[in-house]
Amino acid sequence: MENIEKYIPVCECEGEDFMEIPLESDGTLSTATLSAYFPGVTGLKFRLDSYSPYRALRLYDGKFHAPEGSWAGHKFYCVHPKGDKRKLEETDCKPSKGYHSMSCTDLIVLGLPYQLSETQMREYFVQFGKLVMVQIKRDASGNSKGFGFIRYEDYSSQAKALGQRHYVNNRWVEVKIPASKEGYYSKVPHKIFVGRLTEDISEPDLSKYFSQYGEITDVFIPKPFRAFGFVTFNDASVAQSLCDEDHIVKGVSLHISEANPKSDQNRDKQVSNQQQYMSSVLTNGMLAAALNQVAYQTQPIPYQTHRTYGKVQDWKRRGN
């Protein structure tokens, strides 16, 4: 084929920026390539002109074929499954590849060199993203207390700063979320559940595929094989953005959802078991005490009176 196109313009929906997607050597577009850039997509559509209705692109044997034999002059839009959360009317066509609406917070920087200035501090941390605040805490005399605060303009920059160690002016410093705010962020899941796995998909396969969305800290597929696995990201926003979507890995459609932490469930179950145990102990203890009291009150006595038909008779208990 001569003058074959090497890339075609594709975007999430009308109004979004287009991305040029590479074609195969035979001039087709593979579903794997399309899904790598637009996860969850099941098809493509296009218009002949601005007044024409959409036309679906033909899909055959895992490849999209050019409309009427040529890609030239067309712009293509993604098609998602019916009911998918990323449909135009439900999400206003916001891209979901690693973006999330989580807000930034002040980060505390511990172990700062006492001679470090705000300017030097800014020069170091600006490498991770635009800073909106840099502050070193000082005493009444103006001397550094050895810690300070920074705040980034966007969450991705904050995640980068939190995801690594820092060596500032020949000293290791620690960057973390202040304890007063740590509880909220620690509850945001970093892990995703990957369902519909097949046995020919390995942990390296999952790592290679999902690493395009963000830094991965762990990949786990249970053994013996149970058709699911887990992927943990350094940035919780990346994990959240991938949930409730289908991704094609090695020709297999995998469903992604939030990995429900079992620690809280196990802890609640453990507390419940402990409460039941203590209740059982208490009940059995009270019963045992009551039986002991009855036994104490019914100890053998030499004589016991017994009233029968209005008469009192004495009965002498025989000894052994």
TrEMBL record:
GO terms for cellular component: chromatin; nucleoplasm. Residues 105-182, 190-261 form the RRM domain. InterPro entries: Nucleotide-bd_a/b_plait_sf, RBD_domain_sf, RRM_dom, TDP-43_N. Keywords: mRNA processing, mRNA splicing, Nucleus, Repeat, RNA-binding, Transcription, Transcription regulation. GO terms for molecular function: RNA binding. It holds the Pfam family TDP-43_N. Gene3D superfamilies: 3.30.70.330. This is RRM domain-containing protein. It comes from Aphis gossypii. The lineage of its organism: Eukaryota, Metazoa, Ecdysozoa, Arthropoda, Hexapoda.
